[in-house]
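Field reference: sequence -> structure
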Amino acid sequence: MKGIVCKVCGYIALDGEAPETCPVCRSPKKVFSEEEDAINTPENPDNPADFEKKHTPDITISRECSLFSGECLDANVRIGVDIVHPMVPEHFIGWLDFYVERKFVARTHLSSRINPGAGIHLKPDASGTLSVVEWCNQHGCWMNETEL
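Structure field:
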């Protein structure tokens, strides 16, 4: 999938336009470039290969939150549908980017020392499409989406 990518931090502008300033690293618009294969998704979403399952963000939405007591919409993500992605120094997930309606909302950094997952707490009135992009140090960016 085509994307507009920050060459400094890897952020991908899902809305199709480079921002004046990168929302992740604050680099200027001039560091962005269009890439044909910026984001991977399973070739056949109904029957993904094991390699694709291991890289696809698995998104769970919950309206129950112990941190904000009913005033929250939790989006929890683990990397790997049925097969959890490895987290070892030579092969790991480095970050997850969260978008609502193709607009960036958060980045979570990961390392090989933790499990491949993260969550964010959205306001309870959040709606639309939640997109999650993950970056694997060996296999690039992978995306999945769900409705809030």
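Note: The domain at 42-147 is CATH 2.60.40.730 (Immunoglobulin-like).
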